[in-house]
Specification:
Elements lengths: L4 H8 L10 H12 L4 H25 L4 H54 L6 H8 L6 E9 L7 H17 L6 E4 L4 E8 L3 H14 L4 E10 H21 L6 E3 L5 H7 L3 H12 L7 H15 L4 H8 L3 H15 L7 H14 L9
Parallel strand pairs: 4-5
Antiparallel strand pairs: 1-3, 1-4, 2-3
Helix pairs in contact: 1-4, 2-4, 3-4, 6-7, 8-9, 10-14, 11-12, 11-13, 11-14, 12-13
Amino acid sequence: MRDASAVTLIRHRIDLDRVEPPTAALEYARRAAQHGIAVSALIRAYRLGQQEMLVRILGEIRATELDPDLRLSVYDRISSTSFAYIDWISQQVSGTYESERERWLEHRNSVRAVRVREILDSDDLFDIDTASSALGYPLRSKHLALVLWTTQSDPPGGELLRLERFTRAAAEALQLRHGPLFVAEDTVSGWAWLPLDRELSEAVRTIRELAETSDTAVHLALGTLDSGLAGFRRSHRRARDARKVAAASASSPRITAADDQGIAVAALLTDNLVDTRRWVLDTLGPLADDTASDARLRETLRVFLHEGSSYTAAAEKLVLHPNSVRYRVSRAIERRARPIGEERLEIELALLACRHFGQAVLQPAG
């Protein structure tokens, strides 16, 4: 323990309430916070220093010719005073560390956020190596962009810490060679990029499992896997599209991936849900009623059309008998009140909108 204050405290019998934290100790805590050294390592250094000091003092006491009881009293006094001092100084440097860490991260994230927005908002060419160095993130790699948000209220700043912790946990679960990039979008949502070196499906599966088993207050929208600076932007755009669909969805899914079926098209339909609803009602007629029976008919017709109008393939997908699929498709067409004809594409899109947006585009029952 290089801090000589404890020795001075013992030698002069100074009351701990009258001691001021050493300037060097507080400055070291600030530097540790700026360099990302864990506060636990800082406190452990004090504990190890105390242990070394007590070992040396014990050796000195044993070498004296004092009465054994007096030697024990001396060691007890030094030991108890040093423990009290270490407990006190640990609280002081921890408080300084946390304050500096918060200030440093806020400043760093602000600068980072500005640079990220510059890259996203401009199609101009950037020096990719200079930009990578400024962000501390490898822009030449393959990227998976995430949009994260939370609906749970935390103390001021706590929401972003929750999202950043999840981003780091995802990077650890994926065993990335390079760290992730996280910037705040606002007080309850953030943007992140993961530099992947594996297949997208494997990464999405890992992130889904993490989200389902860890912090259930975190909501995610995942982009696509894209490379380089253009891919950095493209994956982010796809992640934001996925979030638009999740925000408009009646079921409010916690995890939405841009590669999920129909997400890219559904994102285009979110721009004006009022007009989308009118179009859905015009396209599907009574089949767009918000009832359980119409929901079953819509899903059967959607799968039937998606499987190339094959009753057998649709039956396998829905785990139904082909005759049941045939009956439901027939009923769906009856409910629509006109044949499919050449409107197949419009019907598929309308059914897709119903699946993602639910009540927002359906006709209330009755």
